[in-house]
Amino acid sequence: MVDEGPQSAAEREARIAARRKRIQEKLAAIRQGDNAGTQEAAQQQEISRTTQQLLESSRLLLRLKYETTKAVTAVRVQGDELENARRQKEEHVRQDLRNKLLAEAEAAAAANASIAVQWGAVIALEVPQDLFQAIEQQQMACEAVIASKDRLIADIRAALKSKDEEYVKLLKRQAADVDVLLSAMSKQLTDLTAAYREELDNVEHALLQERAELMAANRKEVTALLDARSAAETSFTDKYLAAVETYAKNLEELRHADAEEYQVLKLK
Description:
mainly alpha
C-alpha cells in the first residue's frame, strides 16, 4: 500500500471539513424554514376570531357594494351610450340638411340667374308662338326651382317630425331608465341592509364566542391557580404539622431524658 503522505491527509481532512460545513448549512436552512413556518402559523393563530370575522365581513360587504353599485351605474352607462349614438345620428342629419341647403341655394341662384337672363330674350320676341314657348320654358324653369325648394322643405319637415318622434322616444326611454334606476337602487338598499345585518350578527356571534372562550380560559387559569394555592397550603400545613409533631416528639424525648438524668442525680 502506497503512503499518501502528509499533504494528501491534509487535503482529505479539508474535504471532510468542507462537507461537514455544507451539511450544517443545509440543516440550518431547513431549521430556519421550519421556524419561519412555525412563526407564520403562530402569527395566524394570534389573529383573534373577531378580527378574522371583521376582515371576512368587510371583504364580503365591499364585494356586494361593488356589484350593486355596478348594477346601478350600468343604467347611466347605457343611457350615455344611447345618448351618444343619438347625438351622432342627429349631427349626421344636420350635416346632410346643411349640405342640401347649400347645394339647393347654389342651384337656385344659378337657375334664377338663368331665368333672369332669359327674360330679356323673351321680351324681345314678337312672334306669338315663340313668345308662348319661351314663356312656357320660363314657367317650367321656375317650377323646377320651386319643386327643388319644396323637396328641401319636405326633407326639413321630415327631419323635424323625426326629431319630435325621437324626443317622445327619449322621454319614454328616460322614464324607463328612471324606473330601472329606482328598482336597482331599491334592490341595492335591500341587499346591503340585509348583508350588513347578517354580517353584524356574525361579528356579534364571533365576539360572544371569543368572550366565552376567554372567560373559560380565564376561569380555567383561575381554577388552576386556586388548586395550586390549595395544594401549596395543604403541603405547607402538612409540613408544618409534621415539623410540630417532630419538635413535640423531640421535646418529649428531651424532657424524658432530663427526667431520667434528674432521677439519677437525685439518687446519688
